[in-house]
């Protein structure tokens, strides 16, 4: 039986989800994946069964791979800003 992931591994995986979700150029996709990551990690926080933990860990790693590929593809296309998206001032753009 494989070893359970450590707390630091889980937090690292969570940060990777957030980082890759933020790479989406489309506002709706970006917010969807951010919400999905936060919700799924919160739901799995209470898992105690070793089998369920391993399944959740493996599933999250597979989903991260898909998310990475999709975020790269998303960056290949440009989208107009939506009305709900905050606009960056010229001062904010210089800092990034």
TrEMBL record:
InterPro entries: Complex1_LYR_dom, Complex1_LYR_LYRM4, ISC_assembly_LYR
Pfam families linked to this entry: Complex1_LYR
Coiled-coil blocks: none
Biological process annotations from GO: iron-sulfur cluster assembly
Domain Complex 1 LYR protein: 9-65
Gene Ontology CC annotation, any one: L-cysteine desulfurase complex
UniProt family annotation: Belongs to the complex I LYR family.
Name listed for the protein in its UniProt record: LAFE_0B05578g1_1
Organism whose genome encodes this protein: Lachancea fermentati (Zygosaccharomyces fermentati)
């Amino acid at each position: 039986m494989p070893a359970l992931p450590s707390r630091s591994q889980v937090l690292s995986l969570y940060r990777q989800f957030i980082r890759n979700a933020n790479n989406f150029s489309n506002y709706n996709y970006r917010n969807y994946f951010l919400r999905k990551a936060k919700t799924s990690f919160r739901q799995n926080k209470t898992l105690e069964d070793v089998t369920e933990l391993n399944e959740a860990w493996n599933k999250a790693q597979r989903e991260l791979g898909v998310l990475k590929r999709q975020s790269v593809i998303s960056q290949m296309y440009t989208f107009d800003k939506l009305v709900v998206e905050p606009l960056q001032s010229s001062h904010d753009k210089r800092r990034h």
